[in-house]
User: Fold this.
Amino acid sequence: MKATRLTMICHGLTLAQKRGYFPEPEEPLVSVPRRCVPHGTFQILTAPEQRAQQTALALGDATIASGLADCNMGRWQGLALKRVQAEQPSALADWLENPASEVHGGESFQALCHRMSVWLKDFELPGEWFAVTHPMVMRAVLVQVLGCPMVAAQRIDVLPLSRIELSFSGQWRLRINCPQNASL
Assistant:
């Protein structure tokens, strides 16, 4: 059985991230990353949102994978976090503390975790893969791979262009890599 290696990459910086807003579905990047094609033979997947597709262009030709779509934030899309905190403090607290919360009218974190669990289960494609997606999606994937409580996702910061490396050979595993020629 040939192993699968999947590197998940967070999209580049958006104005919404910079200003503390919940993103709009078609939120563009502040600046498109410079082209950086990794070595070797690999395939690229991207979430359907514009910010993910713009980031994926830096790697090469990508196939849109709807399963990598961002969490739907419902009525909070495009709103400043400070505004939601001021106008709906109990709703925001509920959303932060309860993974099943749908107070914004969109997708709960619990539903996103389930969606990513199904996506990972169905991802049986051997070889080297890159997948450009979103911070919430990457948190949900880490929750699934590590088998930790969903509330632990609130303690994971996923910065623009950050990566997580996973491998699959019977089960998904987190790969923590050391840079080549690294020394302490």
About this structure: The radius of gyration is 17 Å. The CA atoms of residues 91 and 103 lie 6 Å apart. The beta strands are 4-10, 43-46, 63-64, 127-133, 163-168, 172-175. The longest strand covers residues 4-10.
